[in-house]
Amino acid sequence: MNLRTALAATLIAATALPLAGIAEAAPLARSEVTKLFPGQFEAQVKGYRVNFTGSRGGTIVGAAYGQQDTGRWFMKGSALCVSFDKWTKGEAKCGRISQQGGWYVAQGNGGDVLKFRRTDLAQN
Q: Are 38 and 53 in contact, with CB atoms under 8 Å apart?
């Protein structure tokens, strides 16, 4: 194996590690997910940074790049679902939540990955 092949194999393995960690992390129970709210969070989705606030009652307000949207969060079985009026056109995006390196991580059925972390100090 030459140096270029070894380097390429190392890079491929390194990029696969975070996804493998997501798949292997144990999902949080429904009760653990609902305890996250109310709260303020920073999220990363498809390379974009979004700040959002979720209430205990299921409403959610998000802000990103000077735009704001409202929607709701809810549980569907043990998956957290989020829908925004404009950003998702009211369509719910759902995923089981696990913890990884200080982030809450959701991976939906389509393979989309959302990660978010608390930015407030409230622990309810």
A: yes
pLDDT, one tens digit per residue, over 56-101 is 999 999 999 999 999 999 999 999 999 999 999 999 999 999 999 9
Token code pair at residue 17: 């590690």
pTM: 0.74
> 14-31 in b/e burial notation, b at 16+ Cβ within 10 A?
eeeeeeeebeebebbebe
Tell me the three-class secondary structure of the chain, residue by residue. CCHHHHHHHHHHHHHHHHHHHHHHCCECCHHHHHCCCCEEEEEEECCEEEEEEECCCCEEEEEECCEEEEEEEEEECCEEEEEECCCCCCCCEEEEEEEECCEEEEECCCCCEEEEEECCCCCC
Contact between residue 76 and residue 92 where contact means Cβ atoms under 8 Å apart: yes
User: What residue type is assigned to position 31 of the chain?
Assistant: S
Residue type, 49: R
